Amino acid sequence: MDTLKKSLxxxxxxxxxxxSGLLGMxxxxxxxxxxxxxxxxxxxxxxxRVDRPFRPPSDKYLLGxxxxxxxxxxxxxYGTRVSLTIGFMAAIFTVTIGTLIGVVAGFMGGSVDEVLxxxxxxxxxxxxxxxxxxxxxxxxxxxxxxxxLAISLTGWTGTARMVRSTTLxxxxxxxxxxxxxxxxxxxxxxxxxxLPNVSPLIMATTIYQVAGAMMSEASLAFLGLxxxxxxxxxxxxHYAETSGxxxxxxxxxxxxxxxxxxxxxxxxVASLTLIGQTIEExxxxxxxxx
Amino acid sequence: MAYIAKKFASRLITFFIMISVIFFLARSAGSDxxxxxxxxDPRIPLDQIERLRVKFGLDKPIYLQYLDFVSxxxxxxxxxxxxxxxxxxxxxxxxxPKTIFLLGTSIIISTLVSFVIGVYxxxxxxxxxxxxxxxxxxxxxxxxxxxxxxxxxxxxxYYYPIFPLFGFKSPGITYTNTFEYVRDLLWHATLPLTTLxxxxxxxxxxxxxxxMVEVLGEDYMLTAKAKxxxxxxxMFKHAARNALLPxxxxxxxxxxxxxxxxxxxxxxFSYPGMGRxxxxxxxxxxxxxxxxxxxxxxxxxxxxxxxxxxxxxxxxPRIKI
Lengths: 290, 321
Hints:
The complex is a heterodimer of chains A (290) and B (321). Chain A is mainly α. Chain A is built from 13 helices and no strands. The longest helix of chain A is centred in the N-terminal third of the chain and has 37 residues, at 72-108. Chain A is elongated. The model of chain A is unreliable at 286-290 (pLDDT under 50). With 321 residues, chain B is an all-alpha fold. Chain B has helices at residues 2-27, 33-38, 46-55, 62-74, 88-123, 128-142, 145-159, 178-216, 219-227, 231-256, 258-269, 274-283, 287-315, and strands spanning 80-81, 86-87. Chain B starts with a helix and ends in a 6-residue tail after the last helix. The interface between A and B is large, with 45 and 48 residues.
């Protein structure tokens, strides 16, 4: 426990030196803050129809109203919750599946490895978005959890490969052979040696996966496959595209409806990428050297 | 030769698995195109629908349907699209060139541009230009792809209406000569192309730069420097050559995946290409169309992967053909 605390503190120290890392962290924390306190920060309940539809921005409605008369600014704030939650949940599932498969394949080796890698190759080569759409269409009704599942089931392949190659390299190291010589059980080796060494990599990957999952969710929602009861940023854009956002501004596009959700997505993904890059730099000394 | 043949064989197997997976996934949706379209219409008696089902072989057990599928595909018969009321082959062949035109051009341009910028950034790594530039590209890459398209459409389609709002050519026009036709095509394709370019350049500049930086970190680069090789020669003779290999491979693979990338852009710009076709097929349970378009996708992936293997074998002296 103490070594864990010590390494975390060391990590935080190095992290603090990176300007971009701090920026990313600050941005992400602001979004998390907004997500947590959305009910207090937003002027209206986004599910309330507060006025006529398609009203332009004014003092009453910061970003105007959407096609059913709900306040867009409130939608945006509440959307933080949905988008972030889906992103994190999908990322956790994806990394769990990928790590499981990667560690098993790398550790067991032999035919287990061969079979698992073939399977991974096939899933990897199937085009991502059509497969997502297909999965969602098969399951029929779309909900929050279904989206998380679909995104995880199509996105684990990269993680699996990475974890597998790291596991392989750890397996070859001396201390693992030594442990085996003493007679340590397989699970002991996995939990005490392999997993701790794979963890930094998993941390960085998870962050990137959150970013990727948020993008996938936005794309799916935009295409109309999102959960209609949840207001994520992608869903806001979907309604903007299909319910008259292009004409709402007296025959011109309602840019106040279209632009903000995209900016939010971009900022969140960018902050996650910055954090992920900083973590990668810290754990991979080669990148830091030059 | 044996190397390529071996790789090709495994690609072929992957190809078959790909189209089979789509076959089974599509069928597991529970409803079929006939149910979708005809059961709603009260004028059509139910036994008529059953007869149509039998005619298309949808009443047979699934493994027999699969055999039908394999044998008819090998004969080049892809079925009939219920949604478009045309043979699948025609529908796919209509959409395919449009997507290839759009995405092929974007891949070529984006690869060239990102290579130049990526190498330059790697050369000047650590400088302000590199840092700001890389972060700028990273930010661009974080924007949702379709959103970027919407923005471009707003600015250049509505407010400063230079470019058309949808489609791949102006509807209902006959052309007096080929030049006008090409001009119309290009005019319509500009915005989608730009959206694709922005996103792809954003991705590949980072990739190229990182690839180069990794190569620059290798020991043989240090040796070259110690030997007194000029910085220019270091970059181009030693570093760029080695970084070229993964980049070339990735580019070949991208051609294979071009059908995938199209969906979002084509939706925003209402561009009638393969992406929208696949989307329409999935949403309307149109199996035959879905199988046919996926067949196309798988063929392109197969060809692109094989070319990537060949290029790999040619460029990497460690691989003996």
